[in-house]
Design a protein that fits this description.
The protein is an alpha/beta fold. The protein has helices at 3-7, 13-16, 20-41, 53-71, 100-112, 131-139, 147-155, 167-170, 187-195, 218-224, 271-296, and strands at 75-77, 88-92, 119-123, 143-144, 159-162, 199-205, 215-216, 230-231, 251-254. Strands 1-9-6-2-5-3-4 form a seven-stranded mixed beta sheet, sandwiched between helices. A two-stranded antiparallel sheet has the order 7-8.
């Protein structure tokens, strides 16, 4: 029997806020206000690249988690291969027209890795030419891809992520899905060799189907100064609705680390060594993609 039914009066905590649930909500509200104040006044802890761990954990990751858990139903595998501390370089395939694969990879490592590691992604310059996107990317821990930035982050013990295919990966036609493009000039391999950190090959299945790219409006892309302008079965025909990603089934798999500690200290300067290491990592990711595609089966099953 409730307090009001036994006494005919409202319980005291309605007036004095002493109920445990009331105290809990007051604490949450106070915490939220302090967080908002720190963001507005710029008092949050931000590193030299603009990364704000609190902003990322409390605002960006929860939004991405909805897609990760409910929409794409991502299955994360091989986390035992990802070190719990120290510098390491995650190298993954890139696809999907928009870089949802980067966001899902970052979310999975944050949520499911035993040490909840933050992935510091290296992105294209185009991202940092757009004010709002650049702000959010930096707050999430991303930074412009460059040898200097990669070296600094890796030597600081960060987990760094790269997509060597770049725009050629996310902008390739649907007919070429899961067929890796060239891995650039091997910059990621040189970075790992220079910092003497392990390379973590990562295969991502699922992103190719979220926006099946059946065409590329190149004149419009040139007009807008974009690397490509995608045409999909739904976009641009259905407007904003056509920009909603399809709910494909995802698997993100980390393979065994590729050790770089056994190479000579100046191996990163040797083009032959860099090319061989690049081919090794690319080969492992392609082999993993081929196996995962067979295992997953239909993308929307």
């Amino acid at each position: 029997m409730g307090w009001e039914r036994s006494t005919g009066e409202l319980p005291p905590w309605v007036f004095d806020g002493s109920h445990p649930e009331s105290a809990d909500w007051r604490g949450r509200l106070s915490d939220a206000v302090r967080f908002a104040r720190r963001q507005i006044t710029g008092e949050g802890e931000v590193d030299e690249f603009g990364f704000d761990p609190e902003f990322n954990t409390r605002l960006l990751i929860p939004l991405a988690r909805l897609l990760y858990q409910q929409w794409f139903r991502v299955e994360m595998r091989g986390l035992a291969h990802v070190p719990g501390a120290g510098g390491a370089l995650v190298v993954a395939n890139h696809s999907g027209v928009l870089p949802f694969d980067a966001i899902m990879l970052q979310t999975g490592l944050h949520d499911e890795h035993p040490q909840h590691r933050d992935l510091r992604l290296l992105g294209a310059d185009l991202v940092y030419e757009l004010p709002v996107l650049a702000y959010l990317a930096r707050r999430a821990g991303h930074t412009a891809a460059s040898p200097a930035n990669a070296d600094r982050l890796l030597r600081d013990g960060e987990l760094v992520g790269v997509f060597p295919e770049g725009f050629k990966g996310i902008g390739k036609p649907f007919s070429d899905r899961y067929q890796l493009r060239r891995f650039g000039r091997g910059g990621f391999a040189a970075a790992a060799l220079r910092a003497r950190v392990p390379i973590m090959p990562c295969a991502i299945v699922g992103a190719e189907e979220i926006y099946p790219m059946v065409g590329n409006a190149r004149p419009l892309a040139r007009l807008l100064r974009l690397p490509y302008f995608p045409i999909t079965p739904l976009f641009p025909w259905f407007g904003p609705l056509g920009a909603v990603p399809l709910p494909s089934k995802w698997i993100i798999d980390f393979g065994a680390a590729v050790d770089t500690s056994g190479y000579p200290a100046d191996a990163w300067r040797d083009p032959a060594v860099v090319a061989e290491l690049t081919a090794t990592v690319r080969g492992r990711i392609q082999a993993a993609l081929d196996e995962l595609l067979v295992e997953r089966g239909p993308a929307f099953g």
